[in-house]
Queue: 2 jobs
Job 1
Amino acid sequence: MKRMILTAGPSITDLEINYVTDAIKNGWNENWNSYLARFEKKMADYNEVRHALSTSSCTGAMHLILLALGIGPGDEVIVPELTWVATASAVKYTGATPIFADVDINTWTIDPVSVRKKISARTKAIMPVHLYGHPAEMDQIMTIATEFNLLVVEDAAPAVGAEFKGKKTGTFGNAGAFSFQGAKMLVTGEGGMLITNDSELHAKIVQLGDHGRSRNPETPFWIDQLGYKYKMSNLQAALGLAQLERVDELIAKKRQIFSWYQSRLANIPGLQLNEEASWAKSIYWMSSIFLRKTFKLDRDGLIKALKVDQIDSRPVFPTISKYPMWKTDAINPVATEIGRNAINLPSGHNLQEDQVDYICKSIIRNLGV
């Protein structure tokens, strides 16, 4: 390969370019939020929910949701051990404490059995993460939430369009949040979106995300409470709207890329792909492999060998409870094993089948299988 095959990368067409160009030329003054309004409505309609609100990031969306739900100091929120740090960080921003649950060995998403063990008198919410585009086991999560009167906030950052038993991720709990960061399937450069069916919650979030500004149109600059600045720009929304209009096409390509890996790697003993469960539709934001036995190279050795072959990859998230700021002694063995032995493979939208073939041959050769 003459150039590095990168781990991620978006699909940008003339539709995105035309919408953004229009927003640059005309999206000001009375049209300052034209694409924002269209993007939010399209997102709400796509997920069949009442409300969608664009934000500057998925992290900001989760922070606003938790604040509006009343999560704060003294509360505990159960999060998965295997996720990007933002899930737990959003909890900490409110003054609450993240409690780390283990994950399922097959789906890599939060394990309901572990969740039950982590519940205490201080537990107020569960935050399942639909990791790498695969939905968490939401039936069991919602059953636990109902049993213990807990809130549910879905971190669906990489999972726009993923489904649990035919229902889209982000629509099960009190609210859900998505990411449009530049490596995701749908991109706005940076940005996020939250969705909810709770109109009262939505109104609280809107005010919190607008510096606590009064909702009274007669006093537009009166501030009722401490608020935050988590807004998306109209320019970003123009890009996001075009991406969302192409969502089925983008999901199909991600699933096709995974199928290419699956056809070449699925029958290697000890090498597990992140295949979807029977009840799930994964969008396969990242196609990944898990080294479940001893090969010629370990995970980190394979990453280095792939780099020599001009193949970019990245390790799956480590156990995030071990970061120094949490000061916890959580022990979650499944997440630990996955975090030490799994890899995200190149999964960008512009990836071609001959490149996947080259990547798989490199993996097979370097692992000695």
Job 2
Amino acid sequence: MNAIETRHLSKHFDGVQAVNGLSIKIEKGKVTGLIGPNGSGKTTLINLLTGVVPFSGGTVLISGTELSKVAAFDVAVYGVTRTFQAVRLFEQMSVLDNLLVVLTERNVFSALFERHKAHHYAQAEELLKNVNLWDKRDENAENLSYGQRKLLEIARAVAMDVEIYFFDEPFAGLFPEMRRVVVDTIKRLRDAHKTVVLVEHDMDIIRELPDHVIVLDAGKLLAEGTPQEVLADARVIEAYLGD
């Protein structure tokens, strides 16, 4: 079963075709790597699927629901969440509160006034320990290092407990021990039968993590298959690896 399917999806910006009639399928419960050279349309595709920018044409199916547009405020309804290349946190809130605001009711009024219960704190503790941030729980998010901020954003995405996760370059700029934390987090999501779409440039990560890899070039599908198949494809080597 497919978690996501795009049908002739397109997006242009002032004449530049960022996504060009793209039709792909992302299997449910798997980790799908999304790779391609700079400007190939990877982030634009995620932005389309999470409602950050509108479609220019085409449709998508999310968990079987066909949509001709996706609004950012609706993505949680379809069981979708994401991280960004530029980390987005509640800067003036503590690390712990960044988790608790997600773990409680998600409409604005309830999130502000619902009292946190013991099970919310237990969930937040587990999530923060998984990303080695429990000792930082009382620090404001703005005081964290770059890598710690990325780990907090990933923990907050996991706290949403949705079906589909988009991670946009989650390993960029991380130290090796932090990279291992992200790898373990994504593996736990797969073990829980969640769907993960991973935009990544590091070929070692692509060899290790994804079950399936989709390669974009100039907004079009260039190749897809297992990591081994894709990374041995001459078209991919020419377009992406430059070898």
